[in-house]
Design brief:
This protein is of the alpha+beta class. It has 3 domains: 12-48, no CATH class; 56-108, Phosphorylase Kinase, domain 1, CATH 3.30.200; 149-199, no CATH class. It has 7 helices and 9 strands, in the order αααβββααββαβββαβ. It has helices spanning 17-23, 26-32, 43-48, 98-101, 105-108, 131-148, 176-188; strands at residues 56-61, 70-76, 79-85, 116-118, 127-129, 150-153, 159-163, 168-170, 194-196. A 3-stranded antiparallel beta sheet has the order 1-2-3, with no helix packed on it. The radius of gyration is 29 Å and the shape is elongated. The structure holds iron/sulfur cluster.
Amino acid sequence: MTTRRTAPETHPGTRPAAFERLRRLPVVGRAMDWGLGPSAVSPETKRAGARIAGLKATESVCPYCAVGCGQVVYTRGGELVNIEGNPRSPINQGTLCPKGSASRQLIQQPGRLTKVRYRRPGGTEWEDLELERAMDMIAERLIDSREAGWQDVDHHGWRVNRTLAFAHLGGATLDNEENYLIKKLWTAMGAVQIENQARI
Ligand code: SF4
């Protein structure tokens, strides 16, 4: 635990005017304030105010990896303005790695893909697909794979009632409830290869 240095207590009313004028010189003021306090703030900075002043702050979790760093998400009228590390999180204590620091780009990166992209078998070009159509195609392929790869018994003749034709790999941003439901769904469909990125 480090102890933060604070500026020594001062009593401006007891000082002569010449001393106060001298103190207002930046180099003198900063030396007397130990580099902290009001003398360390320029008039421009004071005028501009804090970048996050007046914004709505919402606590969240970084979506990228299994470390699960806490974030504070700042919004103005529902519009994302800033994301930074949450000092209340015991995991990251206000810090974020470079990837987590850039997580605002997950929403506001101009090059971000916002449509499903599909390259059909044998195709050489990507096509846009409506989300609903893409979901239907995934469901059709899943059912076909399950039926084509279903095993009642294994090669020893033991009953297994499973398919090795598909597997599921979850991401680190899935929470406990989502993982629970995913495991239930895929096990019910007969999958045995069900993993999560956080365990690998
Ligand atoms: S800030 Fe970095 S280390 Fe923390 S959860 Fe996000 S990606 Fe992982």
